[in-house]
Amino acid sequence: MQETKYISVGSPDTVNSPLSDEYGRRSDSFTRTLGRRVVASLIPQSKGSIVVRWSQRTLAITALVMLLAIANEGWVMAAETGVKSQILQDMSSLRMAPGFLELAMFKEQVIDFSYKVSITYHSVFIAAMVFCLLMTWDGIMNSNIIQVISVNFHNLGLFIYSLLQIIQLRKDNDLLGGPGFPAWFLASQIVLPCVLGIFLPTFAYLTFRTNSDFGWRIFKITGGDKAMDKAFVFYHIFLLFLKFSLFFVLGFTIINVVLTPTSEAGKIMIPVALAVIGTVFPLIGYLGVRFENRTVTSLFIAGYTGLIGFVVYRTWEAFNRSNDSSNFNRAKIPFLMYACVGVMLLFGAIISGVLCWAQYDRGLKHVLDQERKRRSGDHVAPEIDFEN
Question: Could you report how far apart the first and last alpha carbons of the chain are, in Å?
Answer without folding.
Answer: 69
